[in-house]
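User: Sequence recovery, please. Input:
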């Protein structure tokens, strides 16, 4: 059926609120799409039909892209993959954004939320020319059109969703729920940017998206850009109706207004009427945004604005087949993926497909050479204003190095240079450095800290000396650190925090996500998608590197004794280390200075996901800043001062640690062994970079076999105290020569509200258990050290009774300090 004809009894397009026309004169050469006259509407419709034609072609056609001859089965792809249902609506939005950008000279990006809308965004990128500029072999002619069609969802080609390979894409479209938070992240500190977000009505049912509606309460109209949500309601997801599409319009309007928006509804199924209504709605929304920004920036308005948004109701699979095999398709869930599934085998399906494709009147849209005709291209912006060419959508083009401060003013001093002679809260030390970084980026505004209401809890409160917490609503006298222009972002939705930061990074800025360790799991799926994005972009030379996604996980498993079992889970590290090794990094600094060094490295890095696990409670200072830098550069190393291994031969046993609490327990165990078994040769190894345990061929940071054996030995017992689940260490090291001699202690999912030391005892990570492990595993030691082992067991039993009577840890544990070798007779 013709694309310009209604597919059902025509319903007039409805605009729920009046909107003015464009308030900016069209630049020279764009008069054809300036005023909303018949010529402009015809150009918009031609562009939309061309995008629809290209979308259908990508799903179905292997050859004959311009339908120069009748369709035959061999012109059809053997496997029909892709999603048609959402594509017409996305094409409509892209077409109208083109006009708005051209007429108003907007700097705009768009986040395409509906999961598998790839055909639409690829089609529009090809039409505007950005695709051919990025991939010169996909030319903007018949040959290039054929390549565009063939590569879609085809081996060696491109995915069916909006993926990194697509110019202008900022958002991995394979998973739903994150588009709106990404759009807000892109707008932060981008005062000239319009960040448009198309939200599918299926996506709107997800938890992450639901929380994102509240991001408008954090958008600063002075220093940030604007976000324009477009809620696209086409009625259905894969096989069911969607909640928001079935709500009565007054109820939906009340919901969106309750979220702080001023919605304008456009609905209908007559294309020309919808074009006119959507153009008016978009113009009105942009006029409203300009007014909000002018009032805030030049007139001093401080009230939280009510930002506009558009609700767009169009039929699912609009302009596609009305019926297939006697079943209704258009405007039903059956249009979701491939409306005609058996085109190669079913002659009637083949006939319907050809009628469908020809309904767009391709001869009016493309020349005989396959190039788009001038009317089709009339709405398309020029140069970097095109959505597929905007540099914000390739954020590495805009990225600047952070002005990292020197670490020396913030480093923990070791009295007389002695390990363990002093202690600091590691994250508080880091907070001092971050405060300086916040101050040094105050003018350029390209660094933010995000987190779920935990910045001060995580001991990073020094940053409030440089900036406050972003907040646009009313404040009370009892509030602290709230700031309309603040650059610390806190909301109790880890999904929203992650989305903000990802959008911020993808558009060329830097940041840090601070979170309780146990609840980082909430964003497991989000970090999956970001890692996949980075993995793919590394293979695309035109994608410039972006700043790394940096996690600071604190309030960790071993010091959540007060909150209990619900807050005790160190498994985020396991999740991340399952992912692409060239992208992921995991660091467990054992003290404040190593945390400073690791954070400095992570904040300077590009194209990684860095996970840093560090405590916020007082922790012994083991290394000077200079030593910490060297240790972090190695990633793992021998602490000669901590053991009794003189380096002249192999030790009897290796005590290894990764993490701050495990490091303390290992050093306490080493001191006990030195006291009770002075003849034993003990080597102490500390691991900061977990990936060092992997073989070099499996991770860029992995150690070659010879280096690993030199550190851990090939055949001596290794007692490894690890911060998280012990089986991760076995998985990382299973191919090592000495793996059979490796014994790992870690968190065994035994937690409760208890004392700090009882947590390690319950999980057999305590110093006394480690000494017992040494005695059990060093050949010949079990018999001659039986009395020592019994003493260790007795202390554990006494601990059990002590904490139940006194409510705190044994004095010899609570008051323990590291004693250097030679000061205790050892």
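Assistant: Recovered sequence (826 residues):
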């Amino acid at each position: 059926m013709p694309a310009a004809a209604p597919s059902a009894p025509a319903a007039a397009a409805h605009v729920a609120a009046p909107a003015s026309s464009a308030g900016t004169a069209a630049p020279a050469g764009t008069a054809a799409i300036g005023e909303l006259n018949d010529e402009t509407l015809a150009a918009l419709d031609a562009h939309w039909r061309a995008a629809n034609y290209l979308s259908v072609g990508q799903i179905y056609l292997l050859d004959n892209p311009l339908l120069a001859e009748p369709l035959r089965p061999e012109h059809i792809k053997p496997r029909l993959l892709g999603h048609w249902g959402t594509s017409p609506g996305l094409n409509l939005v892209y077409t109208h954004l083109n006009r708005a950008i051209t007429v108003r000279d907007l700097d705009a990006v768009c986040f395409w939320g509906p999961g598998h809308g790839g055909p639409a965004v690829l089609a529009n990128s090809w039409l505007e020319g950005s695709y051919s500029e990025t991939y010169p072999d996909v030319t903007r002619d018949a040959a290039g059109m054929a390549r565009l069609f063939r590569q879609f969802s085809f081996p060696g080609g491109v995915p069916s969703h909006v993926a990194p390979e697509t110019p202008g894409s900022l958002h991995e479209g394979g998973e739903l729920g994150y588009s709106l938070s990404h759009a807000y992240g892109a707008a932060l500190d981008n005062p000239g940017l319009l960040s448009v977000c198309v939200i599918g009505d299926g996506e709107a049912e997800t938890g992450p998206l639901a929380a994102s509606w509240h991001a408008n309460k954090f958008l600063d109209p002075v220093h940030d850009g604007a976000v324009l949500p477009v809620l696209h309601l086409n009625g259905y997801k894969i096989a069911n109706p969607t909640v928001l599409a079935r709500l009565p319009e007054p109820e939906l309007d009340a919901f969106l207004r309750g979220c702080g928006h001023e919605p304008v509804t456009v609905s209908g199924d007559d294309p020309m009427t919808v074009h006119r209504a959507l153009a008016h709605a978009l113009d009105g929304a942009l006029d409203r945004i300009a007014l909000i920004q002018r009032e805030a920036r030049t007139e001093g308005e401080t009230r939280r604005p009510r930002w506009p948004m558009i609700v767009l109701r169009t039929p699912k699979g609009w302009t596609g087949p009305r019926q297939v095999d006697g079943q209704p398709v258009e405007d039903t869930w059956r249009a979701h993926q491939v409306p005609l599934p058996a085109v190669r085998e079913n002659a009637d399906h083949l006939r319907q497909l050809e009628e469908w494709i020809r309904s767009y009147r391709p001869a009016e849209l493309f020349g005989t050479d396959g190039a788009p005709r001038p009317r089709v291209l009339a709405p398309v912006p020029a140069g970097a204003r095109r959505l597929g060419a905007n540099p914000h959508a390739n954020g590495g083009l805009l990225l600047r190095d952070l002005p990292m401060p020197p670490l020396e003013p913030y480093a923990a001093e070791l009295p007389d240079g002695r390990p363990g002679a002093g202690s600091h809260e590691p994250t508080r030390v880091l907070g001092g450095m971050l405060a300086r970084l916040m101050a040094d980026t105050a003018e350029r505004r390209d660094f933010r800290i995000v987190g779920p209401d935990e910045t001060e809890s995580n001991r990073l409160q020094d940053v409030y000396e440089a900036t406050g917490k972003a907040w646009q609503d009313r404040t009370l006298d009892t509030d602290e650190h709230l700031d309309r222009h603040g650059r610390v972002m806190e909301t109790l939705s880890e999904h929203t925090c992650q989305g903000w930061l990802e959008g911020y990074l993808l558009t060329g800025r830097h940041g840090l996500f601070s979170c309780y360790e146990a609840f980082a799991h909430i964003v497991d799926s989000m970090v999956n998608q970001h890692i996949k994005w980075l993995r793919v972009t590394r293979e695309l030379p035109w994608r410039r590197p972006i700043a790394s996604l940096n996690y600071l996980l604190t309030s960790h498993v071993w010091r959540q004794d007060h909150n209990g079992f619900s807050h005790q889970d160190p498994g985020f590290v396991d999740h991340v280390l399952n992912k692409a090794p060239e992208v992921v990094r995991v660091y467990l600094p054992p003290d404040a200075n190593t945390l400073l060094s690791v954070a400095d490295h992570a904040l300077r890095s590009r194209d990684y996901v860095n996970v840093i696990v560090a405590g916020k409670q007082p922790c012994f200072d083991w290394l000077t800043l200079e030593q910490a830098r060297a240790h972090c550069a190695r990633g793992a190393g021998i602490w000669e001062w901590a053991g009794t291994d003189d380096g002249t031969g192999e030790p009897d046993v290796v005590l290894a640690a990764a993490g701050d609490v495990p490091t303390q327990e290992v050093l306490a165990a080493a001191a006990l062994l030195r006291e009770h078994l002075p003849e034993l040769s003990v080597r102490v190894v500390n691991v900061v970079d977990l990936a060092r345990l992997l073989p070099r061929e499996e991770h860029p940071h992995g150690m070659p076999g010879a280096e690993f054996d030199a550190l851990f030995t090939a055949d001596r017992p290794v007692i490894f105290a690890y911060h998280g689940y012990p089986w991760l260490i076995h998985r990382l090291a299973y191919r090592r020569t000495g793996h059979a001699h490796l014994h790992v202690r870690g968190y065994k999912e035994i937690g409760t509200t208890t004392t700090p030391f009882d947590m390690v005892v319950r999980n057999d990570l305590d110093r006394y258990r480690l000494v017992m492990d040494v005695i059990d595993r060093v050949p010949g030691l079990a018999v001659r050290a039986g009395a020592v082992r019994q003493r260790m067991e007795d202390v554990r039993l006494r601990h059990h009774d002590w904490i139940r009577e006194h409510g705190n840890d044994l004095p010899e544990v609570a008051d323990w300090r590291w004693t250097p070798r030679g000061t205790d007779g050892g």
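Confidence is low (pLDDT under 50) at residues 1-31.
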